[in-house]
Amino acid sequence: MNTPKYKRVMLKLSGEALAGKTGYGFDFEVVKRIASEIKELVEMGVQVGAVVGGGNIWRGRNGIGMDRTTADYMGMLATCINAMALQNILENMGVVTRVQTAIEMREIAEPFIRRKAIRHLEKGRVVIFAGGTGNPYFSTDTAAALRAAEICAEVILLAKKVDGVYDSDPNLNPNAKKFEKLTFQEVLEKNLKVMDSTATSLCKDNNIPIIVFGLDTPGNIKKAIFGEPVGTIVSN
Ligand code: GTP
């Protein structure tokens, strides 16, 4: 366990992950633990891009008759709040970060500029990509896949509440079977809920593997970076 397997990674954190057990808002102890794991990676020389979801603040339009685009834009704003929280906690730990937003809000953060993002990464700064893709009808998983392709990340680390990909929902089915390895084709054909199909196709077409793992177990991010078996790996 000496040299990291990956030099540049995209870490996708679900918004719910930041909420801890409460399911809403922030559990700052959880956010601090995630931040300290990110710090470890940076100290090992790994370049880290991060995309955060927004589900701990805004869960979308379900059941309230709101139109899709408005609900999606609200979700994008939620990801910006999360990005600022993560930035603040990382910087309090001495990790240099930059937030770049897909929708311009220059008073708050710099706008997404691909070449600038890459320079930040080269300088060892964690770049948090906020605001999804900037478009409705796309998930933050798709934003992670898109930004990963743009910054030439070698892998997407998909940190979830569940510790991998199962053949059925492990919360509902105690006999659900966890996959160690899957191909993107299998994920699409079996309609497995890893990422949505847009994000999955983007990773498939651009040959970016995804490691799906549970965030609740401390040390998983580091294990994934060193190529140790953790969760489920999805590749071509
Ligand atoms: P280099 O000097 O190129 O290595 O990068 P840098 O990010 O340190 O330089 P820059 O002068 O662009 O940024 C200095 C600080 O201002 C950083 O914290 C940036 O995140 C922030 N910053 C840069 N552009 C913007 C912007 O448009 N809006 C906001 N709010 N902050 C910005």
Q: What does this protein look like?
A:
It is a single chain. The protein has one domain: Acetylglutamate kinase-like (Carbamate kinase, 3-Layer(aba) Sandwich), CATH 3.40.1160. The protein has helices at 15-19, 28-43, 68-92, 114-122, 140-150, 184-189, 197-206, 220-225; strands spanning 8-13, 47-52, 97-101, 110-111, 126-130, 155-160, 165-166, 178-179, 181-183, 210-214, 232-235. It is of the alpha/beta class and 236 residues long. The two termini are 25 Å apart. It is built from 8 helices and 11 strands. Guanosine-5'-triphosphate binds next to loops. It is an enzyme of class 2 (transferase). Belongs to the UMP kinase family. Its EC number is 2.7.4.22.
Please state the overall shape, judged from the principal axes of the Cα atoms. globular
* Count of folded domains: 1
Low-confidence stretches: none
Tell me what portion of residues adopts beta-strand conformation.
Answer: 15-25%
Helix content: 25-40%
Radius of gyration: 17 Å
What's the N-to-C terminus distance? Answer: 25 Å
Architecture in CATH? 3-Layer(aba) Sandwich
Structural class by helix and strand composition: alpha/beta
List the total number of helices.
Answer: 8
Order of helices and strands: EHHEHEEHEHEEEEHHEHE
CATH class: Alpha Beta
Strand order of the largest sheet: 4-3-5-2-1-6-10-11-9
Mean pLDDT reading: 94
CATH topology: Carbamate kinase
| SS elements, strand count | 11
Q: Identify the CATH homologous superfamily.
A: Acetylglutamate kinase-like
List bound small molecules: guanosine-5'-triphosphate
Major β-sheet, in short? 9 strands, mixed
